[in-house]
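Exercise 4. Each item below gives a protein and its sequence. For each, produce the structure-token representation.

Item: Glucosylceramidase (Chanos chanos).
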Amino acid sequence: MKESVLLFCVVSVGIVTASRGSDQCWAVNFGQDSVVCQCNSTYCDSVGQVVVPVLGQYLGFLSSKAGSRLERRHGPIQPNSTGAVLRLTVVPDQKYQRIKGFGGAMTDAAAMNILSLSPGAREQLLQQYFSPDGIEYNVIRVPMASCDFSTRLYTYADSPGDYQLHNFSLAPEDTQMKIPLIQRAQALSQRPLYLFASAWSAPAWLKTNGALTGKGSLKGKAGGREHKTWAQYYIRFLEEYGRYNLSFWALTTGNEPSAGQMTNYSFQALGFTAETQRDWVAMDLGPALHSSPYAKTQIMILDDQRILLPRWAKVVLSDIRVARYVHGVGVHWYYDRFVPADITLATTHHLYPEYYLFATEACAGWTSFDRGVRLGSWKRAEDYAHDIIEDLNNYVTGWTDWNLALDPGGGPNWVKNFVDSPVIVDKGRDVFYKQPMFYSLAHFSKFLWEGSQRVGVSTSHHTALESSAFLRPDGTVVLIILNRSDSDIEFEVWDQTLGYIPTTIPQHSILTLLWKTH
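Answer:
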């Protein structure tokens, strides 16, 4: 409570540090290491629609701790080397995974915050995320019923003993909040918008502990009526959303199944081991989905920390009964620092290359020592960019942020699990703040179209820079570079067919470079 009060005080004394222009960030300093960009019903900075220049020219976008926000730079690709000590060479013959997309979650809390704005400000916020003038998210995660970022505990089938799901019904949070906003996002987007759904808990009467929260799993065994009812719950969810003309690209097998195995876990969870998840998909969810009108909806297993890989994937995907129903493996970012990506993500990819890896949840401000909203934190933007680059360089095909929007206290959240978000809504002032994390995500979501293929990039010697390169379907090379060091770094990019791009990346900044190959 003390943190929330302090945060609201800081919000009220934010200092405007830059003047507005037609496309400039309305920068406000809240005492962190960088600034937020303030938006209201009539003004919001926007990257706009991007046209890649003609062959022989490059286009760049820079965001930095110093305050740049998708700042444009451009120039000619030069025929000769500048002699820079550091060279990044794009190697298009080295081809890896293709990109699916980037996005965030339409939680109850996110929807409540977006809807708390006036119609004009609400439209600005949705445009920033989904329109061609914004950062063009093409993925939305949709929680099935409540999660911690709800204001109450509920499922869609809370009538005990309703094994046929006769009383299944969506909640007002769906019909009055999430669905209208998703429909509007879909209307704003020029790209296909992919929805995927995750459930936090089965109804309490289907569970061993008789509660939505804490340690508990499904009663009975795979193939039994509780397990089959839970599988049909997924089908009913797809049916009900279908009534609103919303279809789902994918379902996950449930949010963080390991959490439901923890004693005294504080919010909604449903426990599975790799073995019980394997059997439920093989005997219940897979057959139910396959025989339904939604057979094309894909299944992602795990939806949990990558530290559980590759073992979880081995248990599930090595079983021929279940492997034919599964399309991908969902991972969360929360313990990434404790386990290298090459022994989790890359190993899993090499073992099971036909199944995609997809990052399904991430947020800042979740740890006890750095909790909640930090308005203007560049450190958190760097954490995002570092994790995305590391994931992409280890065969991940997309990256999903957590809440699309939260309030200045990091909620609402019924269990007070307050965290941060790329967009913070201050409904009292009818404004929202685009955090540095928003721009960090933009460096990927705006420029990496669906179908973009990762290609090789090599460095002439060891460097502090982190990078990932892609070839888009339209023949554009996209090179994303992160500098987390305290020094500006001069370097050149070598396209072996076209020539050299000389540039300098400032300390603590993210740079995206684009150029045509033909």
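Check: The longest helix spans residues 225-242.
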